[in-house]
Amino acid sequence: MKKLGLVLSLFTVTLLLTAVIVTVFHTDVQNTLGGVAAFQGTFYFLTSVGIINIPQGALGAYVGAPGAGSGGVQVISTDKNRGSYMVYATNPEYEGKTIFESYLRLETQLINGVNTIKFLTYAGDSASVLPTERRLDRNDKFAITRLGFFLLKQPDGKSNGELCAYPNYTQFATAGLAADLESIYHGKLNITIGGKRIVNGLDMQRFRKVSQTQQSAATNYDMSNLYDKLTPITPNLNIDGSANNEIEVIYPSHAAWAGGTAPATFKHYLVMYAHGFLITQGSGNI
Predict the structure, then answer these.
(1) Closest Cα to residue 59, out of 6, 21, 99, 109?
(2) What is the pLDDT along the chain (286 residues), one digit of tens a residue?
(3) Which run of H or E residues covers position 17?
(4) How many Å apart are CA 251 and CA 48, to the nearest integer?
(5) What's this model's pTM, rounded to 2 decimal places?
(6) Neighbours of 91 (CB within 10 A)
(7) At what angle do helices 2-25 and 29-48 cross, to 10 degrees?
(8) What is the separation of C-alpha 136 from the centre of its chain, rounded to a whole number of angstroms?
């Protein structure tokens, strides 16, 4: 079955390439198809004997220019993370840099009467970096591929609070509290990097993830895991450690809004959680 799938994939790619060349350059269909097939056969022969290596998950490749002033063989991948990785790994700007999958976790306490939530991105932004946070070094860059925003009820002095991708009525059981917290997901996300607005009014509803089976008691959990609650981001968002990063969530509030009112010995937070690629020594000041 795998071999059949590969043959079908090659046939499809061949037809698509032929159609594009014929349409753009008005060439003869029969000769063009023969030329493309010959190229495909030669290319896959070279890959089969190891002269050209294709990364795992790749369907094929084409010669193109992935970025300004660069060129080479670009991978067409079935794995979105592999495709994102190749964008950065083949970019001359990051030549010699170490690139690997990682995460950011930024936390801001919810305060009654404050309807703009700002996230600090640098490890040195303040002396109160929480133990569960993972911020960005000024010398690095982080490319966000998946993003989520979670409500957190954290016990004072501990780090075992559950991340909730919606106002969980079990975690936020005080009367009216979950309803107030719902307004955060009616807000918008703005991101400004180095004075340039790269996200303008992205709706927070896309980050509200209610599991098919919800938590019903302190002794059980939602059905889905954290990865399922992260939203794919296209195009990827690049957070530069050396830039002035402004990340904020603005949500509608009212005079009696009490989402920041936590039980004694607890605090409420909004958590920005991002998966992606950490580019060490990749910031603009290197």
Answers:
(1) 6
(2) 545 555 556 667 666 766 666 576 666 666 555 555 555 565 554 455 455 555 555 555 444 444 443 444 455 666 777 778 888 888 888 989 999 999 999 999 999 999 999 999 998 877 789 999 999 999 999 999 999 999 999 999 999 999 999 999 889 988 889 999 999 999 999 999 999 999 999 999 999 999 887 778 877 788 778 999 999 998 889 999 999 999 999 999 998 999 999 999 999 999 999 999 999 999 986 6
(3) helix 2-25
(4) 55
(5) 0.75
(6) 18
(7) 140
(8) 15
